[in-house]
Write a structure and sequence with these properties.
alpha/beta; five-stranded parallel sheet; about 45% helix; nucleotide-binding
Amino acid sequence: MPALFVLAGPTAVGKGTVSAYIREHYPQVWLSVSVTTRRPRPGEVEGRHYHFVSQERFDELAAQGEFLEYAVVHGRASYGTPRAPMQAAIEAGLLPLLEIDLQGARQVREQLPEAHFVFLAPPSWDELVRRLVGRGTETPEERERRLATARLELAAADEFDTVIVNDDVRRAAGELVHLMQQH
């Protein structure tokens, strides 16, 4: 049975970009689609990027034990990984990948310590700031909150089995998929 891979890293490091590249170029990889209470960003599609739900619906799913992990991220929105689709992907022999935040990765480690945890790191702090500012989807206050969180998240890299630097999306995605295929 294939190992579950967990991809995490600081805000704006490019987790979503690397995951989107993998989704497009590596059909053998199954990417989990998280549930969130935040509003869609421009270009995000329901069911492909996230399942967008109300806080009430999210709380119902959590109470029913439907999430492998869930958390409130950046003090704003709730995010969770649905358990059933991930289990089905593993049973189908696909290469399962969860793209989640640090809190979620820690929760998954508690439940599934046999999973392989990959930290996606920026080439530098300045590049991380440039990416966050450049995407232009956050208010200045939210940007500052995310950068404060990112400093803490970067310090957690040593909790992971593997660190991949996202200096080039194609290279980083290829390195991750190669690692998954080896396991």
